[in-house]
């Protein structure tokens, strides 16, 4: 089940404040350019009143991101307002323009009363924004996939829009641990990078050779995507908390078939 919010009003940009950093070890971020080529073109700067996140196109008019970028969580939470997507933003200009969100989607487990007042269930920190234009026909979009084997040790990459510096930035790391709901990584996570896609690095180095195949329920996107398209296996969602691997790593919501099915319904 999912919770949906219609979005009214005119969308405008904001200048979000920089959040608390969760950089575990060296800051491995490198700038991405040009952002007009795929897959950078499909990575989205997502702004809303009071903040910003990262998202990524999953269809002509739908952006996937973290649920808390769309709704603050729990039964007492609120929906974000004035949500606008800027795919491929280069830090100065939006080469594809921007599209306002028409509808916001998050799982009902994220907004459920059982999670109040502390916010939504971290295992359901994913959602989507349906846009008022088909900008994805020009930017392309990313595939979604889930593994049927352990992926710990696999090389991964994220790309997104940190609030502490302009433009799109990428980082490479490896999955440090995993469980049924999450992948634990050390990709730098600062304000604005919430909602970044996590996918296999295009060409793993010898030090990181593990790449279990992913089940991809959806067909390869059309051009300008390049097949095989980068396949997202997780969404960067939050910094360290609690105990166990979550205490020493950043957390990505792990793609599963039920999650992908939700995204397909929201497209």
TrEMBL record:
The UniProt keyword set, sorted, is: Hydrolase, Protease, Serine protease, Signal
Enzyme Commission (EC) number: 3.4.21.-
User: What is an example of a GO molecular function annotated in this UniProt entry?
Assistant: hydrolase activity
Q: Which Pfam families match?
A: Trypsin
Instruction: Please tell me which top-level EC class this enzyme sits in.
Output: hydrolase
User: PANTHER family of this UniProt entry?
Assistant: SERINE PROTEASE (PTHR15462)
Which family does the similarity line name? Belongs to the peptidase S1B family.
Q: What is this protein called?
A: Serine protease
Q: What taxonomic ancestry is recorded?
A: Bacteria, Bacillati, Actinomycetota, Actinomycetes, Micromonosporales
